[in-house]
Amino acid sequence: MTKNLEFSELKTILDEHRVSAGESVRTLHSRDESFHTPALPDVVVWPNTTEEVSRLVRWASQNKMPVTAWGAGTSLE
């Protein structure tokens, strides 16, 4: 399965405006304020509900795709 097909499946879980594989969005979400080396994600999603998060994590597991939660990007704890 190609990434384009994989990501089109995400749009069945979320509205297409809440799924982005655009380079500028991915770059923004590749780093935070920590010391860790930036890592460019394949896709960025914006779920609004716990049900959407659950469906996204299930999809990621089935597609063997890692998930990284990203909040404000400050890396403050």
Provide a short characterization of the protein structure:
35% of the residues lie in helices and 5% in strands.
In terms of quaternary structure, the protein is single chain
Distance between the termini: 38 Å
Whole-number count of domains: 1
Structural Rg: 13 Å
Helix-strand category: mainly alpha
**Range of helix content:** 25-40%
Sketch the topology as an H/E string, one letter per element: HEHEH
Strand residues, percent:
5-15%
The whole-number mean of residue pLDDT values reads 83
Tell me, what's the shape? globular
The number of helical segments is 3
**Which strand order do you get reading across the main beta sheet?**
1-2
Are there runs of 5+ residues with pLDDT below 50, and where?
none
- Biggest sheet statistics: 2 strands, antiparallel
Counting DSSP E segments of at least 2 residues, the number of strands comes to 2
Account of the 3D structure:
The protein has 77 residues and is mostly helical. It has one domain (3-62). It has helices spanning 3-10, 23-28, 50-62, and strands spanning 19-20, 44-45. It has a two-stranded antiparallel ribbon with strand order 1-2. It starts with a helix and ends in a 15-residue tail after the last helix. The model has no long low-confidence stretch (mean pLDDT 83).
